[in-house]
Amino acid sequence: MINVYVFISGMRLAGEINYFEKQIHDFHKENLELEKKASNFKSYQYAASMAAKLDFVKKPTPIYIEGLKYAYR
User: Fold this and answer.
1) Among 20, 42, 56, 72, which is disulfide-ready with 51 (CB 3.0 to 4.6 Å)?
2) Predicted TM-score (pTM) above 0.90
3) pLDDT grade for 40, boundaries at 50, 70 and 90
């Protein structure tokens, strides 16, 4: 009788172990994908593409006529 209980308990525990190992594998895969996305956010290429998308381009600096070199022309 005890042997049957031990066998059934072992089967139940084996099922739980398989379930948790699958969850660990899924979390590991999801973590790798999130790390890849996070590294893309840090890249200069991502920053440049977002700047172009949001129309953040470098504007020329204004020229003020208060300087004397413009008055002599």
Assistant:
1) 56
2) no
3) confident
